[in-house]
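PROTEIN DESIGN WORKSHEET
SECTION A - STRUCTURE
LENGTH: 593
TOKENS:
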């Protein structure tokens, strides 16, 4: 157990007091209406929203999971996150505009804007409940588990105690501030979280003799293999090879997931933007900071842990190496800063998921189906009750989980295959509510079937989301499951689409006039004159390629400068610069809202 110095406690107390003060400051604004509580009145600028997007996508669990990925497989395995760049940049130049034009409070509200009838209403209620409860509880569970692991490894507090305490602290803030408090404090919490990770990276490098010393020690470490420091894996193209897994990540997984057209809590921020330009700017800043800025301090720490923590305590997972290194490297004051940065990252994520989950339950179920005439005061009160219930259930899930990284992979599998429907619903008139129902339902059932099979195969040794399914002598990884799940769900939803009726013409016309998406809408727009859309087209493709070059060029250019070949780093950074020029010209162009 680590004993905290007075300087550490001072840093912690200052942070807690400042956080509570911010929550109280935004309490009145958050309580005005459901729109204020969930969207801050649609008045936020791009830099606040973009930073909030980054802050909410990593928490105490994320650096731990990245450490586990690298110690088990190597840097390249972070492509499990990096492949989303392809979807994130598409959201910048396509979907962020559409979501802002749609004018919805939640992404589920789009369902009854795009589709019609009882199937649309049923789908809206089902997706709201599914993502607010099942999906959201797993995510909050691993976030709480990350906090508990840090408390256990650094302070010696059992996670069974640390998890409920952390949940209570998060609850007290989430009830006060609503979305106003979430996004504003996200900015401060992002800066704190990044400061903490950079301080730890610098301290760990000091222990190993800098970047040069790290490279030398990794070269002789028994834990390191050829793929440990590779950003793209090499080797043979076999079903169980790293190269094959990488190729599945970048060719299939980015468009097949439930985040293909933005992702729920990111869409919530797009909808909260001042206008369309701010929505695009926020999403672009998120894509850059999320990938090129936040990863490398964690990667440096994970590599240093392979030198400084070659052997883990009995019963500890590879993810535990990150908090163990915190204890070894940081002195008084700095350890307090690091703990505060972890708690800030935890708060930014857990508060977002609580607010987002409650927005689904209230806007898409309570106000839509149970109490259509509910007052603003009533909806805010119900929102707070939902927040309390969700967090209580999340604590139970956290206590049942054993691996953060494995839970990440399971959540992806639950939404595998729905991505094509989410993309095509904007561009193809024939997609209907039954298409989404079939895609999501088949994905969830297939993912659960893998877990049930694993439980049957291993019996009492089964661990939730951590025990793999085996086929012969081969354990099925996420990439293998993707090759089964995605084609299966596509066959299901395409079949169901053509077996069911199209959406009513009037509903389609209303949707197209509001969103102006472009694509395959001829049966709807064939008699229209003078109608203009700005969706799909060569310009969007050019912007997408340029944006991808910008983000990947920065991400891997920085990586090559730190750990690889500086000449390659310069070339990659030059590609990023070229992409930035095209993107900047587009962002300066006036857009319609």
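SECTION B - SEQUENCE
RESIDUE ASSIGNMENT:
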């Amino acid at each position: 157990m680590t004993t905290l110095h007075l300087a550490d406690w001072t840093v912690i107390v200052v942070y807690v007091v400042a956080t509570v003060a911010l929550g109280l400051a935004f309490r009145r604004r958050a309580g005005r209406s459901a729109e204020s509580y969930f969207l801050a009145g649609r008045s936020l600028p791009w830099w606040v929203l973009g930073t909030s997007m980054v802050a909410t996508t990593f928490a105490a669990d994320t650096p731990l999971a990245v450490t586990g990925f690298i110690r088990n497989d190597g840097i390249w395995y972070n492509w499990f996150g990096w492949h989303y760049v392809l979807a994130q940049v598409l959201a910048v130049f396509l979907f962020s505009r559409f979501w802002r034009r749609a004018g919805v409070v939640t992404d589920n509200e789009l369902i009854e804007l795009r589709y019609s009838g009882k199937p649309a209403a049923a789908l809206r209620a089902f997706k709201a409940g599914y993502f607010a409860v099942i999906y959201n509880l797993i995510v909050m569970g691993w976030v709480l588990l990350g906090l508990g692991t840090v408390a256990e490894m650094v302070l010696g507090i059992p996670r069974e105690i640390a998890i409920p305490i952390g949940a209570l602290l998060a609850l007290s803030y989430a009830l006060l501030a609503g979305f106003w408090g979430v996004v504003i404090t996200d900015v401060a919490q992002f800066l704190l979280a990044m400061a903490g990770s950079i301080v730890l990276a610098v301290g760990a490098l000091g222990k190993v003799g800098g970047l040069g010393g790290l490279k030398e020690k990794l070269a002789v470490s028994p834990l390191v293999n050829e793929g440990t420091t590779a950003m793209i894996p090499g080797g043979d193209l076999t079903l169980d090879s790293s190269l094959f897994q990488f190729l599945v990540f970048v060719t299939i997984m980015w468009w097949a997931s439930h985040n293909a057209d933005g992702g729920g809590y990111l869409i919530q921020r797009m909808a909260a933007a001042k206008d369309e330009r701010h929505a695009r700017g926020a999403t672009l800043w998120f894509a850059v900071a999320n990938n090129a800025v936040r990863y490398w301090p964690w990667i440096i720490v994970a590599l240093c842990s392979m030198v400084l923590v070659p052997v883990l305590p009995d019963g500890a997972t590879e993810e535990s190496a990150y908090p163990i290194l915190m204890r070894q490297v940081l002195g008084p004051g700095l350890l307090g800063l690091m703990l505060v940065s972890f708690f800030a990252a935890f708060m930014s994520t857990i508060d977002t998921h609580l607010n987002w989950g409650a927005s689904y339950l209230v806007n898409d179920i309570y106000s839509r189906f149970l109490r259509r005439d509910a007052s603003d005061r009533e909806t805010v009160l119900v929102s707070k009750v939902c927040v309390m219930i969700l967090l209580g259930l999340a604590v139970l899930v956290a206590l049942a989980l054993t691996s953060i990284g494995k839970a990440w992979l399971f959540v992806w599998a639950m939404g595998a295959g729905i991505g094509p429907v989410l993309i095509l619903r904007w561009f193809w008139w024939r997609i209907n509510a039954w298409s989404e129902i079939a895609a999501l339902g088949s994905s969830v059932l297939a993912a659960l079937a893998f877990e049930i099979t694993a439980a049957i195969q291993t019996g009492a040794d089964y661990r939730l989301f951590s025990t793999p399914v085996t086929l012969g002598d081969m354990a099925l990884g996420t990439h293998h499951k993707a090759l089964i799940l995605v084609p299966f769900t596509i066959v299901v939803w395409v079949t169901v689409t053509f077996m069911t009726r199209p959406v009513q013409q009037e509903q389609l016309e209303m949707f197209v006039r509001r969103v102006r998406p472009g694509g395959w809408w001829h049966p709807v727009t064939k008699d229209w004159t003078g109608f203009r859309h700005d969706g799909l087209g060569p310009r969007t493709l050019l912007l997408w390629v340029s944006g991808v070059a910008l983000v990947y060029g920065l991400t891997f250019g920085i990586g090559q400068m730190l750990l690889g070949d500086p000449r390659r780093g310069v070339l990659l950074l030059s590609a990023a610069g070229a992409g930035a020029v095209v993107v900047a010209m587009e962002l300066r162009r006036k857009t319609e809202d």
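SECTION C - NOTES
Strands lie at 470-471, 474-475.
DSSP finds 26 helices and two strands in the chain.
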